[in-house]
Amino acid sequence: MSRRPRGRRHHGVADTSHRRKVNYRNLKNPLLRQPAFSDDRLEAIHDTALRVIEELGIKVLNDTARQYFKQAGASVDEATQMVKIDRELVRASLDSAPGEFVIHGRTPGFDVSMGGDNINFVSVGGAPHISDLDHGKRPATLEDTRNIIKLCEHFDVIHLQSPNVESQDIPVHLRHYRVTESQLTLSQKPFFIYSRGSEQVEDAFAMTRIAHGLSEAEFVAKPWCYTIINTNSPRQLDVPMCQGIIDFAKVGQVSVITARALSILRRPARYR
User: Fold this and answer.
1) What pLDDT score was predicted for residue 267?
2) 106 and 60 in one domain?
3) H or E stretch including 23?
4) Domain containing 157: what range?
5) pLDDT at 91 over 50
6) Dist CA 162 CA 170 (whole Å)
7) How far apart are the two ends of the chain, measured CA to CA in Å?
8) What pTM does this model have?
């Protein structure tokens, strides 16, 4: 008596009932969070951070940003550009921030929930070069940028668009137009805008409103896009960094502020 092939139904169609079904557009962490430190150590780390901000302060190079800190109740020394923030002011600001929020796509099916137990993926951002099997490593172009946008749009496990590679064939003062246009026309997912000056940011915001058919009030009412702010020193905020935070905060859009400094790896002249 012949045995029926494993994994197939009698009518010859593959049996896929054993496969795990996952909604990759809305991933959540099902596991308990594993603490890296005990509660008392976490409290000590947090208290030390508050003491640094309160007693040592942060150097803020942007004049407008220092004025905002002063209006909020922080202690500002204009001579040294140092800003000291009382811990109660920090706590009040933290309490005012939502633990979860939604960044909206072109259609509701592409909305992305951020925070909490939500898990979201995004591709690399800002790489100056690209490499593939056909052409090897080379400076990236707008065509490369657009191709990666299409790839990210195809895979449902990638939730947000990113700046991916730099379109080096487009001059920097015009690049934001072409990259923003590409994201808006090739993708329905929430997307990235560079913080490279208020003028370029406002251009990208205006393009977003036009593409999504939004009034200024509708645009401000919900997050539609995001930027990334990199610190160049643990206790210093530079001029363009602060301006980017201000530009996005004014209209209720998302800033991802990384608590790290970017480093440049320099290859030695010769290997021994």
Assistant:
1) 44
2) no
3) none
4) 99-261
5) yes
6) 17
7) 70
8) 0.84
